[in-house]
Amino acid sequence: MKDIIIVIICYLIGNISFSFLLTKLKLKKDIREFGSGNAGTTNVLRVLGKKYAVMVLMGDVLKGVVAVLIGRLFGSSQVVTILCGLAVVIGHNWPALMGFRGGKGIATSIGVFLVYDPIIALICIAIGIIIIAVSKYVSLGSICGMAIFPLVNLVFSRGIQNFIFAFIISVIAIYKHRANIGRLIKGTENKLKL
């Protein structure tokens, strides 16, 4: 019973949308009414600027970090830790408190893996950043960085449990970017402007 409560708490932590809260404080409006309509860091960058985007990024990463730490400290097994990581990402992407319209979960997934498996996280983050720097497409870097999570897990022989965890997180991220993938194919995706 305790493990179920822990996982639910992590889902609710995922529901805390820093992009939504900061835009409400700054503009008194919903971030999902602007730009791409996504409640995430890149949209905040376009709407509110770098300072607020960094705050959202840090907040969303922190959610992932906290969820995994909760799983490790209070859960009965590594499976509970994995479920806490999944729950916070699902809570971010499909928050009940926001009508199930959240972000895409990249920053929160990064936070999850920075604690769960920092070496793999840093490799995937580095690859994602390089792709963003070269292509100027945040979505492409995010998709590629997340897509290689399971592959890097295999290379480092992290075991089937970790591979499945990475695979599920990767599939969720790619699914949430399906509209971006369509725009990338058509050549209509927005490039990053700093």
UniProtKB/TrEMBL annotation:
Keywords: Acyltransferase, Cell membrane, Lipid biosynthesis, Lipid metabolism, Membrane, Phospholipid biosynthesis, Phospholipid metabolism, Transferase, Transmembrane, Transmembrane helix. Pathway: Lipid metabolism; phospholipid metabolism. Its EC number is 2.3.1.275. One of its GO terms (cellular component) is plasma membrane. Catalyzes the transfer of an acyl group from acyl-phosphate (acyl-PO(4)) to glycerol-3-phosphate (G3P) to form lysophosphatidic acid (LPA). This enzyme utilizes acyl-phosphate as fatty acyl donor, but not acyl-CoA or acyl-ACP. Probably interacts with PlsX. Belongs to the PlsY family. This is Glycerol-3-phosphate acyltransferase. It comes from Alkalibaculum bacchi. The gene is plsY.
